């Protein structure tokens, strides 16, 4: 826990995306490959998936659907283009033998990094290497987006400080934790791939967005959930896994840059034919996580990746792995 806190603090100081998950994961990798790994109880990982699922549910407002419907041709075209490009690159990586099995296909899924990492394990991919691919892309997209923003004259400001202990009712937090745990374990009993993560998302959306039950997720609680997931992934690493990641690094990095460039071309098409300003178009099509069109396309892609990702992975890997 101490090593996780130190690494996470360093990542946050560098403004690295997903620091709350990556810090604990890197700490667990270090201990695991050095032979000091500890066992994480399986129920902790399941409960953490429920918490993160409710977090996703809390940021997917149903009101967004009306805006998506009003501009559906732009949203659908941009979303499907990004998914198709990433699926093709993942398939090419898988065919090259850079990574085992369907790992490359899952790792290339655009956006929804935490979701794809968790779901990939349920479908037989190597969750460790999928995490390596997903979060390397997140870092690359963040760096490139910063450069693009500067090119268009958008000055960055200091990141808002995290209020770790906001004023929230203790009963509400307790009810949210119970809901997350119950939904996650019910999903596990359903024996459907990824149900421990997907059921909290969709059930949480139904409860929160209709006003039946507000979700209270203070940052300290989410940090604990992300830490459990990071530990659960990192403790599975071995020296052999690191060798696989190192061997595939150049090809994975190159494919990430290609995907960013292809999505940049899609952004140009939005500027040229839909009249969207360049920076908004780039942010909307970037394969990772502004105004309304950027938010709509990211949310639409998140939902489509959740729905289509498993089917694409099975279809692209059929008869090959």
Structural description of this entry:
With 321 residues, the protein is mainly α. The chain has 14 helices and no strands. It has helices at residues 2-13, 19-33, 42-58, 64-70, 72-96, 103-107, 113-122, 127-151, 170-190, 195-209, 219-234, 239-274, 278-285, 292-317. The radius of gyration is 19 Å and the shape is globular. Residues 290-296 have low confidence and may be disordered.
Count helical runs.
14
What is the first-to-last residue Cα distance? 38 Å
* Largest beta-sheet details: none
Shape: globular
The parts where pLDDT drops under 50 for at least 5 residues are 290-296
Helix fraction, binned, reads over 70%
How confident overall, as mean pLDDT? 77
Beta content comes to under 5%
> What series of H and E elements makes up the topology?
HHHHHHHHHHHHHH
Structural class of the helix and strand makeup?
A: mainly alpha
Number of E-state strands: 0
Rg over CA atoms, rounded to whole Å, is 19 Å
Task: Describe this protein with a few key phrases.
single chain; 321 residues; mainly alpha; 14 helices; globular
Gist of the model:
The protein has helices at residues 2-13, 19-33, 42-58, 64-70, 72-96, 103-107, 113-122, 127-151, 170-190, 195-209, 219-234, 239-274, 278-285, 292-317. It is mostly helical.
SSE diagram, text form:
Elements: H1 2-13, H2 19-33, H3 42-58, H4 64-70, H5 72-96, H6 103-107, H7 113-122, H8 127-151, H9 170-190, H10 195-209, H11 219-234, H12 239-274, H13 278-285, H14 292-317
Helix pairs in contact: 1-2, 2-11, 3-9, 3-10, 3-11, 4-14, 5-12, 5-14, 7-8, 7-14, 8-12, 9-10, 12-13, 13-14
């Amino acid at each position: 826990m101490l090593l996780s806190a130190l690494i996470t603090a360093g990542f946050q100081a560098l403004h690295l995306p997903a620091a709350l998950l990556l810090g604990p994961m890197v700490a667990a990798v270090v201990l695991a490959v050095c032979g000091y790994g500890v066992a994480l109880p399986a129920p902790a990982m399941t409960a953490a998936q429920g918490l993160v699922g409710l977090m996703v549910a809390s940021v997917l407002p149903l009101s967004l659907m009306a805006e998506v419907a009003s501009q559906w041709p732009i949203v659908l075209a941009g979303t499907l283009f990004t998914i198709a490009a990433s699926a093709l690159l993942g398939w090419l990586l898988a065919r090259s033998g850079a990574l085992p099995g369907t790992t490359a296909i899952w790792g290339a899924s655009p956006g929804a990094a935490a979701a794809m990492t968790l779901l990939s394990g349920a479908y037989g991919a190597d969750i460790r290497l999928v995490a390596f691919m997903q979060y390397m892309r997140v870092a690359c997209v963040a760096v490139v987006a910063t450069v693009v923003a500067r090119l268009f004259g958008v000055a960055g400001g200091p990141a808002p400080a995290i209020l770790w202990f906001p004023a929230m009712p203790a009963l509400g937090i307790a009810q949210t934790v119970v809901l997350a745990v119950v939904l996650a374990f019910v999903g596990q009993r359903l024996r459907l791939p990824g149900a421990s993560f997907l059921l909290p998302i969709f059930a949480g959306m139904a409860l929160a967005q209709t006003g039946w039950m507000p979700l209270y997720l203070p940052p300290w609680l989410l940090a604990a959930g992300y830490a459990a997931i990071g530990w659960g992934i990192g403790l599975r690493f071995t020296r052999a896994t690191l060798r696989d990641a190192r061997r595939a690094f150049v090809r994975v990095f190159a494919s990430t840059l290609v995907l960013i460039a292809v999505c940049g071309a899609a952004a140009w098409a939005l500027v040229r034919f839909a009249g969207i300003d360049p920076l908004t178009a780039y942010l909307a099509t970037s394969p990772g996580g502004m105004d309304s069109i950027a938010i709509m396309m990211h949310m639409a892609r998140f939902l489509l990746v959740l729905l289509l990702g498993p089917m694409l992975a099975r279809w692209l890997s059929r008869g090959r792995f």
